[in-house]
Amino acid sequence: MGTKKTSVPTGDPLVLFERLGVTIDPETLRLALTHRSYAYENGGIADNERLEFLGDSVLGISVTDYLYRTYPDLPEGQLAKLRSAVVSTRALATLARTLDLGDYIYLGQGEVQTGGNDKASILADTTEAVIGAAYLTHGIEVAQQMVLRLLIPFIKDAARMGTGTDWKTSIQEAATQFKMGSVRYTVTGAGPDHDRTFEAVLAINGVVYGSGNGRSKKEAEQEAAQQAYRHIQETLVAPAEEVDA
Question: Which residue in 52, 56, 125, 221 is the catalytic one?
Answer without folding.
Answer: 56
